[in-house]
Amino acid sequence: MRDRDLDTLEFPRVLDAVAALARSTAGHETVLALRPTTDLDEAEHRLDLCAEVLAASATSPLPATAVPLLSPALAGAAPDGSALETRRLVEVRDVLGAARRMRSWLDREPERFPKLAALSATLPELAGLERALARTLDETGRVRADASPELTAARAATRELRDILEQRLERVVRDQTNAAVIAEDYVTVRNGRYVVPIRASMLHAFRGIVQDRSGSDETVFVEPLFAVDLNNRLMLAAGTEEVEERRVRAELTDQVRAHTAELAQIERGLAAVDALGAAAAFATQLECTRPALGADEVRLEQARHPLLLATGRPVVPIDVRIPAGGQGLAITGPNAGGKTVALKTLGLSTLMAQAGLFVPAAAGSRLPLRSAVLADIGDEQSIERDLSTFTAHAENLAAIARAAGPQALVLLDEPGAGTDPVEGAALAVGVLTDLLERGPIVAFTTHFPQVKAFALAEPRLEVAACEVDAASGAPRFRLAYHTVGQSFALPIARRHGVPGRALEVAERLLAGESQDLARAVARLEESRQRFDAGRAAADAEAANLAATRQEVEALGADLRARQRQRWSTDLEASRRFLRDLQSEGRALLDELRQRPDPATLRTFVKDAAAAVTRHAADAAEPAAPPSRAPKPGDMVEVVGRGISGELLEIAGPRARILRGGLRFEVAADQLRVVSGGRPREVVTVAVARPEVAEERIDLVGLRAREAIEALQGFLDRAVRSGASEVRIVHGVGTGALKRAVHDFLGSSGYCTEYHEAEPQAGGAGVTVAVLT
Fold first, then answer.
1. CA-CA distance, 276 to 278, in Å (whole number)?
2. What letter would DSSP give residue 137?
3. How far is it, in rounded angstroms, from Cα 209 to Cα 228?
4. Tens digits of per-residue pLDDT, 694-739?
5. In what order do the strands lie in the sheet with 318-322?
């Protein structure tokens, strides 16, 4: 990645915004040093870490990492025999405490956050050094008095001498006989010695050694003669204390020096975690998401420029798309319509993702991994180098061409601008043609009609236009694909007050070719809008059809499951009834063989017939008593057979009813009107059904699903009519219909067994089903 491209796309400004959320100086510097990687595994690792920090922080905030830099302390500890100041030792102690808390946070859910658990290994545990620092330094950062026996004794001697001096000098300043010479009622220290304030005019009346004077020269600070010996002894005791304290600090410094490498590693690890926390906070603030990196397409959904978001202003999201197999995107449209912002948003999103940062776009966004992001955007003029804008752009385009390989992303803002429009347009087409042959992904903006025509004719390029409000001409800052936009230079100039006479002259001077292209673009835009509207309507209809299909399939599956369950329940109940009746009959026959009694047999037959009648009535679906004679359109039921449906017609003693798409012919006097009146209207799809003989059905030519539905109704009628076996004609064909029939028979409650028909009766093309 070239530094000039990072600067052009303002990537350092994005890092500044992220670094501002870091809580330590080291973390701030780590963010600023972040650079995009071209290694997919490394980029994914960074994104994984950011994702885990975001998820972990949602339940437990990241521990404080606002620790000082250790480099001053480590540099001070480097020379042998050195003794760090207490404030530097406190810095080491604070960093070790922060590392201990951070290790605990990183390791709390290793199965859920494996990357964070691995990161804790970068924070070595120096428990011995941390205990030594805690034992030696108090809460204020001062060396404890009990750090060593010698220091304890020295501090006790110093404290005793200081107390004696303060008490004796306080008696002096409070003695009323000295009121004329004492300037202030307090004891102070000058040059490390305890003194009292004396009026300068009364110095001759007070015996002692002058140690200092006030700025006004009205007060002198005098060490009374009796205090000289005490001050000398105090200074000696303080020196002993200082020497012992330094010795203690030197011992701690030796331990710090012995762990310099580990402490430096801890500092780097804490800085890395702090930088991750800043990246996670940035993603939360700007509602960023993790893109799928390494994709074969560019698909930024609802993307927003991160620096525009950081200003707090409303930002209109855009969709930036380059399909798989495509090689570029041409962005056209008016000035101030958002073309350059779209270009920079694509470049910045790519750099951020490869640096391990989430991007301000909707979930599901996809980006390819790029070996370089090469940009020519903005004013490249250099007065110092005596380069015009065009010359500077030409130099940069030459450098981009040299660096543009198949894995690069090239961003060009108005290539060919800054010179004669005809030559500039020709140069732009030439540069773009060359780049497309070199293989990178190319995204560019243009106003030139010739370049727009080139983009429309080039199959490797996707074209998009910045949308404009048709009524006001104001930009909408959105990209419309599969069309090119007009520059609207004259309407924009008119809206900003350019004189009408100037605009009239400009319109007359417009070349016919440009006018023709503008009209063609307008027609193309109208066609695109009609296409988009039709596609949206088709998509909506397709979605409705899909939803309806799912609902119908779900209802069908539910009904079939209920029917199978009911058949199974009824069949089992009938079998139990038959077994009980048979058992009772056998017992009665055994009894009659031993003791014949015709009356008992007649009673059994009568009771059995009544039981069969009751069982049949219980098994039948309940029907409400008829309130009127049935007529076509009524929902009716065939009494005693459990068949219901819509009455189609009555022809003499026979009637035809419709049930589930199948027509039945039954006796008219067996019909009863089902309560609820006429059936509710439903929309059905009629499927042609074969005419079925009483014990034979022909399924040849039907799809498997249609065939099974027809077979289901056929078996229902066959069982109710008392047939013992039926023949099912399915043909040989590919065998798919035969397998579907056999699968259904194997799970049907109507069928006890099935087999192929005899060769002379159809063989493999016919299945014989034995019914219950």
1. 5
2. B
3. 8
4. 688 888 888 888 888 888 888 888 877 778 888 988 888 788 888 8
5. 292-293, 366-367, 298-303, 318-322
